[in-house]
Amino acid sequence: MLRGFACLVGLLAAVPAMAGEMTADEARRFVIGKTFSYNCFEGTRGQGHVHADGSVVGSIQFQGAGKVRYAALPANTLQVKGESVCASLRGLPIDPCFNLEKIDDNSFRGSISGLGFAYCEFTRRTTRASVSNDSGVPLGLRSSLTAERN
């Protein structure tokens, strides 16, 4: 459950349009269908791709040490609630929401609402990314439609 939440915070925080706080709609346009690398305040890093159905796929390395792990969160993990982008993870007693602040046209900072110190910085990737699973075999990031067909 903790890894899922850490993964969500890491893979989620990808949503800017201009310097300043982004609305949920601006965030959606900025991140859907794009790949971002991220670095979090406590060292966790990786990359992720957010799909239109609210699912996320990518990689995570907790606290910047150990194996880089493949991570996938199901549809509706990321949801818009009013003007906020929130996460819904099975096993968590709350659905945390996020403050999303655009840094420039390619990057933003995401933090858990009310916990500004707990943030990740996201930078848009322009090349196709790949991650490894536990066996070390490369896995290309695929769209959810491709994954469903396989």
Question: What does this protein look like?
Answer:
The protein starts with a helix and ends with a helix. The chain has a single domain (about 1-150), classed as Lipocalin, CATH 2.40.128.640. It is globular and about 40 Å long. With about 150 residues, it is an alpha+beta fold. The protein has three helices and twelve strands, in the order αβαβββββββββββα. Strands 1, 2, 3, 4, 5, 6, 7, 8, 9 and 10 form a ten-stranded antiparallel sheet that branches. A two-stranded antiparallel ribbon has the order 11-12.
Key attributes of the depicted protein:
ten-stranded antiparallel sheet, single chain, alpha+beta, 12 strands, 150 residues, 3 helices, disordered C terminus, Lipocalin
Computed over alpha carbons, the radius of gyration is 14 Å
Mean pLDDT, to the nearest integer, reads 78
Number of domains: 1
Q: Ranges with pLDDT <50 over ≥5 residues?
A: 11-18, 135-150
Helix % is: 10-25%
Secondary-structure element order, N to C? HEHEEEEEEEEEEEH
Specify the number of helices.
3
- How far apart, in Å, are the first and last alpha carbons? 27 Å
Strand percentage: 35-45%
Shape: globular
Biggest β-sheet strands, sense, barrel: 10 strands, antiparallel
At the first level of CATH, the class is: Mainly Beta
Structural category: alpha+beta
Q: What's the CATH topology name?
A: Lipocalin
Beta strand count? 12
